[in-house]
Design a protein that fits this description.
globular, 4 strands, alpha+beta, four-stranded antiparallel β-sheet, Alpha-Beta Plaits, about 130 residues
Length: about 130
């Protein structure tokens, strides 16, 4: 999924968001179960600081303002810091669809579109989701 032109990435990113938002009518979504996804991306190494700032702002806004965004974890690879992984849990597919249209999400997409060199979305089914609360 790697392409060198940034314009292609922008178009691909917008297409993927649209496809994911419109293709969520499966039985998993109809059960109103949590919607869990993993996003893996490679970021332009020259833009890492700006990317991290934008992603952090986006995550904080999502958790603070979107009731359907339950979990948003973003990490980068210790040895390859431009490899970023995001783990997201939404209350439902509808909550994800709502989140994808929020001003802060659209701002994030607009901000990072030329920073991302490759992007892979993986929808997953939870086996165990446990968190220790302090």
């Amino acid at each position: 999924m790697k392409k060198s032109t940034k314009a292609f990435h922008h178009i691909l990113l917008l297409i993927l968001i649209g496809m994911l938002a419109s293709s969520c009518g499966n039985t998993y979504a109809q059960d109103n179960k949590p919607y869990v996804r993993i996003v893996k991306m490679v970021v332009d190494s020259l833009q890492l600081d700006n990317f991290r700032a934008a992603l952090k702002e986006h995550a904080e806004s999502a958790i603070k303002t979107d009731p359907g965004v339950l979990t948003f974890y973003a990490v980068y690879d210790k040895d390859q810091p431009n490899n970023v992984t995001i783990f997201e849990i939404y209350a439902s597919v509808a909550a994800y669809e709502s989140h994808s249209q929020t001003p802060h999400h659209l701002k994030y997409i607009s901000t990072v579109q030329n920073m991302v060199e490759s992007l892979v979305f993986t929808d997953v089914i939870p086996i165990a989701l446990e968190t220790k609360v302090k």
